[in-house]
Design brief:
The protein is α+β, with helices and mostly antiparallel strands. It has 5 helices and 7 strands; from the N terminus they run αβββββααααββ. The strands form 2 sheets. Strands 1-2-3-4-5 form a 5-stranded antiparallel beta sheet, with no helix packed on it. Strands 6-7 form a two-stranded antiparallel sheet.
Length: 263
Amino acid sequence: MFGIILSILKIIGIILLILLALVLFVLCIVLFVPIRYKADGFYKESYKIEARVTWLLHIVTLRVCQSSEEALHVMLKILGLTVYDNTRPKADKKQKDKAKAAKKKKEKEELERKEREEREKKAKEEQERKEKEEREKKEAEAKQLAAQAEAAVQALENNQVTENIAPAQAAIANVADQGTKDRLTHRVGLVQNAITVREQQAEQERQATAQQAQQQQAFVTQPQQGSYRNCSEARAAGAAPLYRGQAGYSPRLDRDGDGVACE
């Protein structure tokens, strides 16, 4: 135990001796190492004064300078490193302010760029949305017009009369799709042809009926030459019955039109 205490005291004594030696060394340097200084200056129309102080083999250097063009400048260097410069804080401050202003400007430009891109993006999305709505609206209108044209053509096909042709053609004219328009137009053309054929057939039948009626009326109202005035006269003459094409035959005597008169 006593030996440990002696060892600790011995270590403490060595540390104290080292510290004392360092203090003595520093004192020797302060007392025996000279301080060197140099001053220079001139004065004419302007002036300049400069002083330089060095110590410990130029390890420590102090420079003081002032002129009519520059303010007082004080600079201290140790081991070549500047530890004090009365002009540096201002320069550093200006540089920091400049850097800060540049940073703010850059941030502002970046923010404006992002806002501009966001506005352009929203405008583009709005334009695309409007175009999509317009396209969908046109498609819906086109489908509606096509459906109306289809219904008009279907109505024409179900009721094939001339009055339904014009509405069907008007509805087809509003159809945008050319293929659909051609298909519906072809169907209307088929119906028109069918109506024309039926009208021609009806006209031919009407003309034939009118001609037949005229012929029958002529036979009834105008007796043929050499025919009997009535069946009694034909029977009295012993000619009854009379056949078509036989002398004395007349359609007015053949009331049932079977080709045999005065049966």
